[in-house]
Amino acid sequence: MSARHDESRAMEPKIQSTSWNPEIEKAILKQWEEQDIYRFTISNKPAFVIDTPPPYPSGRPWHIGAAAHYAQIDMIARTARMNGKNVLFPIGIDRNGLPVEIYTEKKHKVRMRQMDREKFLELCKVALDDLEAEMIQIMKGMGVSGNFKEHYRTDSDDYRALTQLTFIELWNRGLVYLANRPNNYCPDCGTTIADAEIIYNEIPTKLVYMKFKIKETGNEVIIASTRPELLFACQAVIVNPADARYKNLQGSHAILPLFNREVQIRPHRSAKPEFGSGAVMVCSYGDQNDVQVFRELGLKEIVALNDNGLTTDAAGQYAGLRINQARTKVIEELVTSGLIVKEENIMHRTPLCERSKTPIEIIPLHDYYVKQMDFVPQLRELAFKLKFHPDMHRQILLNWLDSIAIDWPVSRRRFYGTEIPIWYCNTCKAPNLPVPGRYHRPWKEKPPFDKCEKCGGSEFTGEDRTFDTWMDSSISPLFITKFGNDQKMFSYAYPTAIRPQAKDIIRTWLHYTMLRCVQLTGKMPWDEAWIMGYGVDEKGEKMSKSKGNVVDPFPVIQKYGADTFRFWSASQANLGYDFRCSEQKIAGSQKFLSKLWNIGRFLSSFEVVEERPELEASDRWMMAELVRLVEECRKGYEEYNFFVPANAIRDFTWNLFAAHYVEMVKGRAYSNENNSAKMSALYTLHRCLSTILLLMAPIAPFISEELWTKIYSKETIHLQPMFREEKADSDVRKYTKQIIDFNSMVWNKKKATIKDGKPLSLKDPIGIPVPDELALFAKDLKEMHNLV
RNA sequence: GGAUGGGUGGUCUAGCUUGGUUAGGAUACCUGUCUCACACACAGGUGGUCGAGAGUUCGAAUCUCUCCCCAUCCA
Known about the structure:
The chain is of the alpha/beta class. The protein contains 23 helices and 27 strands.
């Protein structure tokens, strides 16, 4: 009789339940909080500061991709912590700018520009509180090991004071200037709007074919336009350089109908030969393309509309009209004069104001610009020094840097943002800036100075505009390291270790942060950039509210638990690539945690052997495979690519350790003789499980903590070193395939052997010899399969 | 229109940098089994020739070229 049939039993398992219960997570969270194991204070350990992306609580639900993103950032933090780093994991919430304004308008059914600014800001200030609380609750529930105690907001006085401080610093160094440039304008709302507020719609419009005279020849050229009312602002006619019809016209002049003004005919690639007649009139500014052509051809603008959305004096007899009125009158006049060849109804992709649905106009406006063109070459060089995870995403930044054509416009005619800290002298109009330090609101406060530094005037008007929100976001590494506030902290923590972020905001957040930090500190803000892909739906398409394919992470985490969600995230999202979100996959991750839990349950019934004894052949083989696993995980963790360890661990644990090794050594493990063969098995079993738990700790912190503290130590797993010295002879790994094949062969034979109308059970004896090349493992294999 | 990434069994995915035994895994599906950690399990099985075409090579999912399709970002 072999040991497997023996009545002798190992001790009772310390773990009773046969499945991982996510409810346990709550208790573990409480322990972590009580023990305060994730605190950060300046020490002689190396700092590892994570420049975390402050999420924006702009609506419900929080994007499941963003939650997965945060789970992975936490894995970075835990990895660094286990590797002996002093980790600062700040928790910030972004609450500035347009989305909160729109949210507030909807929530309270108000219009920002039709109510008192102060009252509106008060509504904005608390509008996101509920959503923020919910978001933080999700983060905590996910086991995010961040600094929740000192969580910050980008709309706090402290944060805004720092944004203003950095602006004043740039101003003093001559890196800010005022310029008059074309900008989006909604004639209905009477204000400039940001690109983000524009929607595009195909709307029907008339394409009008007009006759222009050629000055040089007296011939006519037909020009088609959807904007005849802007005729008076036309400054050029362009034709495609490859268009044979107009080759001979390039360089000559066209005479505008009705206005009799001559303009140049010039080649430009944006003129599409197949659209209209192929000759296009360029007006300042009919659309974004006109803006581009004006810039490229160096044309002088004619301001067509004033701030009230009415045509300017430049329109002559059509001055002072609204766009539609002007359009009607101009077309009438053209028809009367026989200058129209035909009118065509077409669908035109038109930019509209998101709220009024009015077509936007482009008019020149004065705005503040931060210089960036001068820094592009330097940023380009630094981009090569920055370590990108994955490396391929550096290209997105490089492409962006190469395409930058203008400096950064930073002033916005919005309300809920950091105020531009400028007061203008009423006498000489000179801008006066305050001494940096506190948070300034020029639109409602008196200036913190008495006299204009230029003319000595004493009456001032405060600037009423705010900054582009990227002005705030781009100083996150400075804020979290207490730049301009705590020099000791700053020199300890800056430059930070790593910037984790999604790939879609490389051209904004990553770029602007580099720009600003290099301008202000002369140093790169981080050593590494970690770029995650996007969470997309099952079909691989981006989630959006309009498509209705958004997945809410909250019920998913409620149902499956944080660790399942985290393991899913790690095993599904290969670093830098988009990953699909489906509940089926998440449920699949749960199965692995259950498997791991049961391995823990099984091993918890055996004494922990910590001293390494002389190992039996099977145990030496398993240790060699374990070392291989550790090496693979190490590589993944070095890249912060959790996809690698998650899948490697699952494969090893399930398909090798549990399926083959555990079955092979059960006989020895259950043996009631405390001989060296048993000790060798117990040592190896526990060494494997404890190693698996250490490797799993950053990914699934709850279940690894629970099993670790139940079986191995009272100390938390999260402050253990992840990697331990391990010796193994990699040569034994050559048996792996043979062992698997042999086991499979035996199982197949048992399955095919029918006894009493049923196939043999796996425990039934069978007469199969162990092949010579597996002689080393013969004893364990015989025991495992009950070979006779 | 430009850029980036991708197209591998029903679905998802590894492999492609450094070309070479029956293309690995997950999931779904079918069949059987409650075998002393686990039925959220175990065992067995069906299913792909790697987007299309051409080329290089003794040999290509893996290299080169052309084309097609998808996703995302920018215009």
